[in-house]
Amino acid sequence: MNSKERIKLLSDLVAIQSVNNHEAEVAEYLKMVFRRHQIPAQIINYQPGRANLVVEIGHGHPITVFSGHADVVDPGGDWSTPPFVLTEKNRKLYGRGACDMKSALAAMVIAMLDLHEQADPFPGTVRFLLTVGEEVGEYGAEQLTNEGYMKDVDALIIGEPTGYEICYAHKGSLDVQITAMGTIAHSSMPQLGNNALQNLLDLIEVINHQIQTVSATDPAMGDFLFNFTVLNGGTQVNSIPGTAGVSLNARTIDEFDNAAVLNILRTAIAQLEQQDSKYNFDLNVLMDLPPVDGHAENQLVQRGQEVGQAVTGQTITTFGGTYTTDAAKFLVNKSQDFPFMIFGPGNQSLHSSNEYIEKSMYFNFVDIYKKLMINNGITH
Ligand SMILES: [Zn+2]
């Protein structure tokens, strides 16, 4: 595919406003692109308007998954170019999703089409998995994993924006909402009520006390993090509130994982509920993504460094990430030794206004992915 066609493909993808929804349009568009090259593609519906896509070339093992998500985050304001019109300025391509992560999707697709077109021999199977809802809970990755698309896989490459660096491990993420139930009363007669907000504050204090004793750090992923993020309760200044709620997010590591956090929360709730019948809490897990712990020394990562250096002339370093990705769902039943890496075109402009990708980096990743498809470094 020549450079004009490469830009056109990315521009078409950016034009689809897949803000945590409408991913079906991305899936349908890519299905059509593959069909034009006589490659069948399978739509896997998630919900009306939301669909994953599965495409394979080659046959047998090793099976290497190349994956990326179709959704983008809301563009917000403050753009100097229209966010859904890919715009080139100073060899940079601006647009929502240019960095996270439609340039990676385009690079993967082009690499597959080129390989197919040129009839380049490559071992095994390249399986492209396009997912929905990555930015909000890895819905598509969970669905595809449940439906068996990761079962026979030998290696996983996710094209999230790392730039010329490879991420081999990342933190988990846990979202929890806790509601305190009480009884509404006039504030002049509090004995007739049960102050849910006060009860919730008591619980927060117990939880804080416990969390402050935790000090856990992972050599690759960094520190365990815990934050209360949303607090609400009460409707009127002279009423005893009948309900109150708090939400929290924890960024977990192997040394202090999601189960350990939930244990602290549930123990604190049980402790108060046993202590006094006025305490009555409801705990709801909104999102539960485990940490992904890989090795920088795995053959896939080493091959990624080798290929990246060959294409760019730069040294490709490795790191542990603080964010979460679809890998949290894709790798649920895999061992720590499973060949996995996150390696995709990108920079720090993701999720911000004036998101962009350098044109050269986008093009380089077509070559990087093509080389990885021909040889992923795994001895099988
Ligand atoms: Zn992303």
TrEMBL record:
It is an enzyme of class 3 (hydrolase). Keywords: Amino-acid biosynthesis, Cobalt, Diaminopimelate biosynthesis, Hydrolase, Lysine biosynthesis, Metal-binding, Zinc. InterPro entries: ArgE/DapE (IPR010182), ArgE/DapE_CS (IPR001261), Bact_exopeptidase_dim_dom (IPR036264), Peptidase_M20 (IPR002933), Peptidase_M20_dimer (IPR011650), Peptidase_M20A (IPR050072). The keyword Zinc applies. Residues 168-273 form the Peptidase M20 dimerisation domain. Pathway: Amino-acid biosynthesis; L-lysine biosynthesis via DAP pathway; LL-2,6-diaminopimelate from (S)-tetrahydrodipicolinate (succinylase route): step 3/3. Its cofactor is Zn(2+); Co(2+). Belongs to the peptidase M20A family. This is Probable succinyl-diaminopimelate desuccinylase.
